[in-house]
Write a structure and sequence with these properties.
single chain; two-stranded antiparallel ribbon; globular; mainly alpha; 4-stranded antiparallel β-sheet; 453 residues
C-alpha cells in the first residue's frame, strides 16, 4: 500500500528472475504511496507460527530484530553520534512545528530518544545478495506458511468476511499479505519508530524521505492512534501487521473496529487487515478476478509478446496458443499480459489488473506472485505445474552492471548503467537475443552474460 523500496534493482515486468532480499529503496516511495517500507526484512525466511489454534509448530524463527529500549545506556558509538543528533532534533523541532505538530506532541515523542547506530549500520549495509525468484517463492508459499495462513483465516473468519464484504477484496489475498509482511502478526517489528526515523533522517542516505515519514509519524501520534513508545515497527519505519509506512498509514489506514483509533499495532489485527483491504480497493481491486494464472506457451510462441505493454483477452491469447495448464482457454477475466519472470525456461503466467493492484503494495514481481500464489494455496489451490530453472543463479549487482555495459557496447543500449534490470535493459537483452538467434525472452541470465563476454 505504499511504494516500493528496492535494494538495488527492480524485478522488471517481463523477465527479471532474481529478487533482492531487501527489495526497497526508499527513494521510490516519493513516487507512490504504498504502505510498506522494509529493507531490513528477509521476506524469504520461513514463517514463524503464530499462537492461533491449528497453526503448524516447528517452523524456523525469523531473524530477530533487537528490541530498542530508549532508556538503556548508549554505547560509545551511540554517544559519539548522539551529540550531533540531539542538535539535529532541536533544529528539526521548528520544522515539525511549522508542519502542524504541536510542541507537546513533539516533546512527548522525543522524550528519551537517542541516536541509534544500529539503524545506520542496517541502512548502510543492505545486502547485495539476491535470490532467484523460485527460492523466494519456495518460502513465500511454503507448506508451513500455507498451513498457518489457513489457520489465520479460520481464526479470524468473521472479521475477514466483514472486511471482504465492505471492501470487495478476497479474504485470502488480505491474509496472504499479512503472512508475507509479518508472518501473520508474529513479526511486526520492535524498533521505536520515532527513534529509527529520526536517526535515518539525521544520518541516513535518504534523509528527506525519512524526515517526511517522521513528520507523518508525529501526526499519527498527535491524532491519538497510539502512544510514542507503542509506535513500534521495523528499523526503517514500517509498522504493524501489514507494515504500513507512516505516510501510507495517514492516507489509507482505517478504524474498522469503531473504537476511534486506527490501531495496526494491536494484537488484534482487525484494523491492519481492513486497512490493507481498503488500500487494495482504493487502487482498483476487481473482486473475482485472479492476480494471474499459470499458462503454457506454444512451441512457436513470439516472445516479444511477453511484455506488460501487450494486452489481449484470454480468448485472443488462446488463439495464439497460450492456454491454461489444463489445456483450455483461460476464462475471460479481462485484459491480460504474459509474464515470464524466469524467461522461457520457467513458469509462465497470464496476469490481470489485480496483479498491478498488488504491485502498488510492493512493486517486485516476485512479491506480487508470492502474494497471489500464497492466496491461491490458502484457498485450496495447487502449486505450479511447470518447473523453474533451478540450476541458474541470480546475477550480482556488479554482473548486472557489466551486462548493461556490454550490451550498450555492442549497440544494444540500456540507457545507463545502474544494475537495475528494468524495461530498457530487458528490451536491450531481447534485441541482443534476436540478433544472436536466441530465444528473445528478455531474461538477463548468467549464461547470457557469459555469451556477452
Amino acid at each position: 500500500m505504499r511504494q516500493k523500496m528496492w535494494c538495488d534493482f527492480r524485478l522488471a515486468a517481463a523477465s527479471a528472475a532474481v529478487l533482492c532480499v531487501q527489495f526497497w529503496d526508499a527513494t521510490a516511495f516519493a513516487q507512490n504511496s504504498r504502505p510498506i517500507l522494509r529493507p531490513d526484512r528477509d521476506v524469504t525466511a520461513v514463517v514463524q507460527p503464530v499462537q492461533l489454534a491449528g497453526f503448524v509448530a516447528g517452523a524456523k524463527l525469523r531473524p530477530q530484530m533487537r528490541p530498542m529500549n530508549v532508556s538503556t545506556s548508549p554505547t560509545t558509538e551511540q554517544t559519539a553520534g548522539d551529540v550531533g543528533f540531539q542538535r539535529w532534533i532541536r533544529n528539526f523541532r521548528s520544522r515539525a512545528l511549522a508542519q502542524g505538530i504541536s510542541p507537546d506532541t513533539f516533546d512527548r515523542a522525543f522524550q528519551g530518544v537517542r541516536y541509534d547506530a544500529d539503524v545506520i549500520k542496517r541502512d548502510s549495509n543492505q545486502s547485495e545478495f539476491s535470490k532467484p525468484i523460485w527460492q523466494y517463492l519456495d518460502s513465500a508459499a511454503s507448506d508451513t506458511r500455507v498451513s498457518n495462513g489457513r489457520a489465520a483465516l479460520r481464526g479470524n473468519a468473521a472479521v475477514l468476511e466483514a472486511i471482504e464484504s465492505r471492501y470487495g477484496v478476497e479474504k485470502e489475498v488480505v491474509v496472504a499479505i499479512w503472512g508475507l509482511e509479518s508472518a501473520y502478526g508474529s513479526y511486526k517489528g520492535s524498533n521505536d519508530v520515532v527513534r529509527s526515523l529520526a536517526t535515518l533522517s539525521y544520518d541516513g542516505r535518504r534523509g528527506p524521505f525519512f524526515e517526511s515519514q517522521l513528520v507523518a509519524a508525529l501526526k499519527i501520534l498527535q491524532n491519538g492512534d497510539t502512544a510514542p513508545r507503542d509506535m513500534t515497527g521495523s528499523w526503517a519505519g514500517a509498522m504493524g501487521h501489514t507494515q504500513f509506512i507512516p505516510t501510507s498509514y495517514l492516507e489509507y489506514a482505517v478504524d474498522f473496529t469503531g473504537d476511534g483509533k486506527r490501531n495496526i499495532w494491536s494484537e488484534d489485527p482487525t484494523d491492519a487487515l481492513a486497512s490493507t483491504a481498503a488500500y487494495l480497493a482504493q487502487f482498483g481491486w476487481v473482486k473475482g478476478q485472479p492476480w494471474g494464472v499459470e499458462v503454457t506457451l506454444p512451441r512457436e510462441f513470439n516472445y516479444a509478446l511477453a511484455d506488460r505493454k501487450v494486452t489481449k483477452s484470454p480468448a485472443e491469447w488462446a488463439r495464439l496458443g497460450v492456454v491454461g495448464v489444463n489445456g483450455a482457454a483461460v476464462p475471460n477475466f479481462g485484459a491480460a499480459s504474459v509474464l515470464l519472470p524466469a524467461g522461457s525456461e520457467g513458469v509462465a503466467f497470464m496476469i490481470f489488473k489485480n496483479f498491478s493492484v498488488i504491485e502498488r503494495y510492493n512493486a517486485a514481481d516476485a512479491y506480487v506472485i508470492g502474494v497471489g500464489h500464497l492466496s491461491d494455496r490458502i484457498a485450496g489451490g495447487a502449486g505450479f505445474k511447470a518447473a523453474w530453472p533451478r540450476d541458474d543463479r541470480a546475477l550480482t549487482r556488479a554482473e548486472r552492471e557489466e551486462m548493461q555495459r556490454r550490451l550498450t557496447a555492442k549497440g544494444f543500449s540500456t540507457y545507463g548503467v545502474d544494475g537495475k534490470v528494468g524495461p530498457k535493459t530487458i528490451q536491450a537483452v531481447r534485441s541482443y537475443q534476436l540478433a544472436e538467434g536466441l530465444t528473445p525472452d528478455g531474461y538477463a541470465s548468467l549464461n547470457l552474460l557469459k555469451r556477452l563476454r
